[in-house]
Amino acid sequence: MNSIKSHSYEVYLEELAEASLRQHVAKSNYSKIFVLVDENTKKYCLPLLQEKMRDEVPVHGIFEIESGEENKHIQTCMLVWEWLSDQGADRKSLLINLGGGVLTDLGGFVASTFKRGIDFINIPTTLLSMVDASVGGKTGVDLGVLKNQIGVINQPQMVLVIPEFLATLDQRQRTSGFAEMLKHGLIKDEAYWKSLREIDDYGNAATIQKSISIKNEVVTEDPTEQNIRKILNFGHTLGHAIESYFLENSNKKSLLHGEAIAVGMILEGYLSHKLTGLSGLSLQEIKETFLKYFHKVEFDQEDITAIVELLKYDKKNSHGDINFVLLQSIGRAVTDIKVPENLFAESFAYYKES
């Protein structure tokens, strides 16, 4: 399976990933190699990685952080920075990030800022991180419950996608990643969207490669998110606010990222129908598809008010305006759309309809 070239690095899949890692380490003369894991990837993924690396990738140290979005903050970075310093890491060291999007985002940020930047390699272990965090160079952490407020865009040396890791996930985690794949079809490729609606094995290598390729095409055209890259945020303006709200409320069951943006894509699909020409038939298709894979989330009026209030912290905002990515049709997205506030309540009402 061919690699996917993204700016200064490549995404390697399956057997090519293993060979590329060994070749890169052999020629790079790193002073020390470190691996960042969480308790899950240490138990389920690290042994497989060590088996694949054999003795050709000598690891100096392994550091474990706690999994979960609630640990994606600067205090966790402090622990990793201090550990790297204690281990004698220098500017010729390498950090391998083995985990889902939380870990690769945080690990990339740690590497990008330690001693003004050391090399890092991302090995995503969840479907979500394979199809989303694998491309684009976004690194960072949350500020309280506000997602990804602190960070930099910095590219890894390479990304290694090994689908065998997906066998370690439960069904809920796999389905969470599927939401981003569906998004790629909605914003860029109607035929891909239609194929995904009928698929059972959405964790196969060919489908993963297709999603990575779609995101990579967008990112390559606009690496710093000035124009077209913004379309990748479809469903995320309301979706991130929903995710943050459920994370900060102890009486609510936290939502996985894909679960939150699945709701966001239905809501923003409704806004698209009202504002940018998405047909009623396409809107119904979007809603039916996401509710086929994701349980409906309950919202009361207090929830909705608080979620709308969180929108003002969205990273895409400019000059006090909340900017949305909406759809003109399936496969065609538009950016920087201002939404009248009364439509938020309407969109939630549409979502709650049976």
UniProtKB/TrEMBL annotation:
Q: 3-dehydroquinate synthase C-terminal domain spans which residues?
A: 177-317
What are the protein's UniProt keywords?
Answer: Cobalt, Lyase, Metal-binding, NAD, Nucleotide-binding, Zinc
Domain 3-dehydroquinate synthase N-terminal: start-end pairs:
63-173
- List required co-factors: NAD(+); Co(2+)
**What one GO molecular function would you report for this record?**
3-dehydroquinate synthase activity
Concerning Gene3D superfamilies, the annotation shows: 3.40.50.1970, Dehydroquinate synthase-like - alpha domain
InterPro entries associated with the record: Dehydroquinate_synthase, DHQ_synth_AroB, DHQ_synth_fam, DHQS/DOIS_N, DHQS_C
Task: Give the first-level EC class, as a single word.
Answer: lyase
Asked whether the keyword Lyase is assigned, the reply is yes
| UniProt keyword Zinc present | yes
Pfam families according to UniProt: DHQ_synthase (PF01761), DHQS_C (PF24621)
**Enzyme Commission code:** 4.2.3.4
Query: Which function does this protein serve?
Result: Catalyzes the conversion of 3-deoxy-D-arabino-heptulosonate 7-phosphate (DAHP) to dehydroquinate (DHQ).
Q: Which NCBIfam families match?
A: aroB
Protein name listed in UniProt: 3-dehydroquinate synthase
